[in-house]
Every structure is written in structure tokens, then in C-alpha cells.
Amino acid sequence: MIHFDVVTLFPEMFAAVTHSGICGRAMEAGLWSIGLWNPRDFTKDTHRTVDDRPYGGGPGMVMLAPPLERTLDAVKESGGGKVIYLSPQGRKLDHEKVMELAGREATTLLCGRYEGVDERLIERRVDEELSIGDYVLSGGELAAMTVMDAVVRQIPGALGGGQSAAEESFVDGLLDCPQYTRPEVWPEGDGAKVTARVPSILLGGHHENIRRWRLKQALGRTWQRRPDLLAARKLSEDEGKLLEEFRRECGESGK
Ligand code: 4FV
Questions:
Q1: Residue 111: which H helix or E strand, with range?
Q2: How many CA atoms lie within 13 Å of 100's alpha carbon, on the beta-carbon side?
Q3: Ligand 1 pocket mutation pick from 9, 63, 86 by most atoms within 8 angstroms of CB
Q4: Is 143 in the pocket of ligand 1 (CB under 6 A)?
Q5: Engineering a disulfide at 177: which of 62, 159, 212, 218 sits with its beta carbon 3.0 to 4.6 angstroms away?
Q6: What is the pLDDT of residues 11-39, one digit of tens each?
């Protein structure tokens, strides 16, 4: 069972992971739980102020440290885990970090808004900063949900139907192979000038050949699209042969 405590000014946003899809079903199945904490509930002034203007001037507002500290105190009181602040200044989220977080029983996710959070709060109360990418969001909530979705998928049983996240992209450091489903020929109908068939190897039912075809495609696409991932991965002799085949066929097809 994994528990996430989320500090956010917009708790209603998290319905996206608590009431929909794989994460919603995994929550119903009791595989994970969430605590939503709104810093506005930890203010002391009648206006329930959670932000103020930045010292030194400049645009926007900054989240006040005191309400956040009181909120994090309450989370800790309730047994909350290490505090992760979602921000562009953080380490980039990747599969390795997702697996690390999937191994923790409790994690606290601090979602910033406005220009961010008073730096002194980060220094005093944040254990690590995580970024989902080099761009600026309006708040940390979407980043927090990205982390939660990626982690919940790793919980055994979360994907249902005996499917395990172990077969997915990045698990073996490679991009995924192409996926196909019905119809066998698409677009259908005589109007369509160009139709595309599902690769016949996938229709033959020969599981080992299918497994090798998929591995070859995953290696090839990783070589084409993310050579950085391939550089970080040792290829087995068989994988080296498959990638060579793919590159040769590319040379031949130029694609
Ligand atoms: C972000 C990111 C992100 C910055 C200011 C929230 C915003 C605002 N978080 N990965 N990229 N956060 O842009 O995690 O407070």
C-alpha cells in the first residue's frame, strides 16, 4: 500500500487520479491512498492569505512559508513521508526515480503555485525537488499527478488483467515497439488510396518470432529517436544483431 500526502491550493484537481482510469481503480482496490492538505486551512488571518509579493520586486507572487510549514507539520504528525517539491529546479523525473518512489510507503508532494515557494521553506522542509520537464507550469499539481500516475502503475495488481508494468517502455531502458489492433487493413474500404496492413509476423502466432520482432523494433526506434538511451544501455549479442538487422533494413528502406 502506497500513501501520498499532497499539499495543494487546488485539491479538487486530484480527482483526475483518484476517480479515473487505472489510478482510480487501483485506489478502489486499496492499492494506494491519498491525503489532500490545503495550506489555506493553515492560515491564521481572516483573508486566509497564502501568498505575498516577492522581496526585491518583480512580477507575480510567492507562496508564504508559515502556512506551508504548519501544513507540513500536520502532514508529518499524521505519519507523512519525505517531502518532494515539484519544480523546474528539480532533478528530472525518470523511470529509475519512479521505481525508487514505488518502493516507499509514504511520500509527501508539495505543489507550488504563483512564482513558487519562499526559498527558506524549501531549505528547511523539502527533502528533494523533482521536475517533470524543462518548461513552466501554472502549478505543481499536474507534475504531482504525473508522479503519482507513474508510481501507482508500478504497484503489483494496479494494471489489472495480470498485466505488469514490467513489459513497458523504459523498464529495459528502451522505447516501446509499435502496437497494432483491429482492423488488419486500415484505412478500410475502396476509397482509401493508401492502406496499411498489420505486420504479418504479428498475425502468425509464433510467440518467439513476435518477441524478437518487437525487441528489434524497440531497439531500432530507440536508436533512431533516443540514441542517448541506447548509449546508456549495454546490448546483448543478440540485441546487437537485431539492431544491425534493423539498421541494414533502414539503409535499404531509408526510413
Ligand atoms: C514544474 C515542472 C513547474 C513553477 C512555478 C509551478 C511551476 C509554479 N513542476 N516540473 N516543470 N512548476 O513548472 O515540476 O509554482
A1: strand 106-111
A2: 9
A3: 86
A4: yes
A5: 218
A6: 999 999 999 999 999 999 999 999 999 99
**Span 80-99, mean pLDDT?**
97
Separation of CA 112 and ligand 1 centre (Å): 7
Give residue 167's pLDDT band: very low, low, confident or very high (50, 70, 90): low
Does the C-beta of 61 come closer than 6 Å to ligand 1? no
Angle (deg, nearest 10), helices 21-28 and 141-152: 60
What pLDDT sits at residue 85?
98
In sequence order, which ranges of the chain are alpha helices (DSSP H)?
15-18, 21-28, 65-77, 95-102, 119-125, 141-152, 207-225, 227-231, 237-253
Cell output for 76:
508529518
Nearest alpha carbon to residue 112 among 144, 134, 72, 159? 144
254 pLDDT more than 60: no
Question: What Å distances lie between residue 245 and 217, 235, 242, CA to CA?
Answer: 10, 14, 5
Per-residue pLDDT, averaged over 218-238, amounts to 94
Q: What is the CA radius of gyration of the chain?
A: 23
CA–CA dist 146, 169 (Å, integer): 16
Please write the tens of the pLDDT for every residue from 178-201. Answer: 999 999 988 876 666 667 889 999
Angle between helix 207-225 and helix 237-253 axes, rounded to 10 deg = 70
The one-letter code for the residue type at 90 is: G
pTM: 0.93
